[in-house]
Amino acid sequence: MADAGPEAPKDQVVSVRVSEVTGGQAQEITLRFSGIVRSTQRATLTFQVSGTLKERAVELGQTVAAGDVLARVYNPALKPARDSANAKLDELNTRYDQAKREWERSSRLHKRGVVSEQNLEQIAANRDSLKASVATAQAALAESSQMLQESTLRAPFAGRVEALLVEKDEFVAAGQPVMRLSSPEGKEVEIRVPAYLLAHLSLDQELPIWSVHNRNQASVTGSVVEIAQAGAIRGELHPVLVSLPINTLGTGQPVEVGIMPLRDSAITVPLLSVIRSADGMTVFRVRDGVAKRVPINVERVVGERVVVRTGELEPGDQVVYAGTTRLADDDAVEVR
Length: 336
Prior knowledge:
single chain, alpha+beta, 5-stranded mixed barrel, 2 helices
């Protein structure tokens, strides 16, 4: 380390020697993580009611449109329950209509003093009770009708049948998977990575993807769409979802996704460039032929270089290591 020396005249060009500041971000080797290409939009379809699979309208690999009938189950209790709820609603509607007419007649008679106030209130209460019963019956009919509709399985989106999990005439429980449907519109791959790599990933970051079956094929570029949060379980791998470009790799293909970690290396300057002054440690940075004093904090000496902390120096900057004793701030310099 050199001490600050006498300043050179402002109009004099000082001849100096410079060296680059080293450090910053460095790329490590690419790490590869395996995964299987899958459709972005996919669904495992189930019935919301139990019954016997009486109709299966599709075959494996068949393409379907949104709303197409895929399968039907038969449950002997569904249709009678709907019919019973419908009949109950008709009965209550009839009684409610009769109660309204009776209240209207009693209201006219009440004005003429024929019907007492108490009797009129009882008739009104019966009318209101039947009105509430009609609402309850309407809800019961809607529920039973919906349950009957649930015995028919329809495609929620356009796609391809990729798996049939139940055969015709088999009993199907409510919620039991029946078939899988996938859409060809988009593809993605899920990989699982250690927690430390999550810090090297960001949304929309582009990653290379290679086909395992054809390693001579050029990689395609995917984009990160989802990143898991790190958990507290030791050794746990965390899922990362990467979308694939359209019309590249096919569904079901094994692939490898590359992640290139970045590491921060220490910023170092030559030992001879560090100047000790009354204001602390500094170096002269040269930009556009002008030397500027930059304050630094020295952490440690490593051989002929010094590890420093500073918010102003950047890797690749030029600092003076010879000729510092003749320099002052904003001096014009000539690099030898």
